[in-house]
Write a structure and sequence with these properties.
It is built from two helices and no strands. It has 73 residues and is mostly helical. It has one domain. α1 runs antiparallel to α2. The relative contact order is 0.16. The mean pLDDT is 90.
Length: 73
């Protein structure tokens, strides 16, 4: 039962991670092409936050991958 829950979490996190990476790219694009400095700065700040989110999601995915590859006792 735990294995299935881990697989569901892993699958959901992969999906969310892909969305977060897409948003990160959008924010970076808006930061580079904003109409004025305030808008560029706003999107740059959002991109930095999203980068942290992407990294945290990846750490969780890595953890789940390591857990699933270890034999259960």
């Amino acid at each position: 039962m735990v294995k299935m829950a881990e697989q569901n979490e892993h699958s959901a996190l992969k999906h969310v991670s892909a969305k977060a990476q897409d948003l990160l790219g959008d924010y970076q694009l808006f930061a580079a092409n904003g109409q004025d400095q305030a808008v560029r700065q706003m999107f740059q700040s959002m991109a930095e936050d999203m980068q942290r989110h992407v990294e945290q999601l990846q750490m969780r995915l890595d953890f789940l991958s390591n857990q699933s590859s270890q034999p259960k006792s």
